[in-house]
Amino acid sequence: QVQLIESGGGLVQAGISLRLSCVASGHNFRTAAMGWFRQRPGKEREFVAAISWSGTSTSYADSVKGRFIISRDNAKNTVYLHMNNLIPEDTAIYYCAARPQPLADLHTVVAATYLRESEYDYWGQGTQVTVSS
Known about the structure:
The chain is mainly beta.
C-alpha cells in the first residue's frame, strides 16, 4: 500500500513563498513519476506541476509557470513544490500524486510527466494553502 503525506500548507500573505512537501512510503519512490494538483474553492481539481521519475523533466500549468518549482529528493522519498510570489488565486487544497513506473518501461518513460488525474495511482490527503491579499 502506498501512502503519500503532504505538509507545509498554511495561511500566508500575498507575495510570500511557501514550500510544500510530500513524503512517500510503501513503494519504490525512485521510479515513480510525481505530480501536484490543487482544488480551489468552488472549482474542480486541476494540474499544477509534475516531475518525471528520473527528475530530468518537469511540467507546469500556465498559471504557475515561472513562480512554482517542483523538485524531488529520492534519498528522502520526498517531492517538493516551491511556491514563490503567491497570489490569492493560489488559495487551494494541494494534493500530491504518484504514478509508479513499471521497471521494464523505465528507459522509455525516463522523461515522462503526467498532467491528468487519471494517470496517477495514489493520492495524498491534501494540505490547505490560503493566500491573503
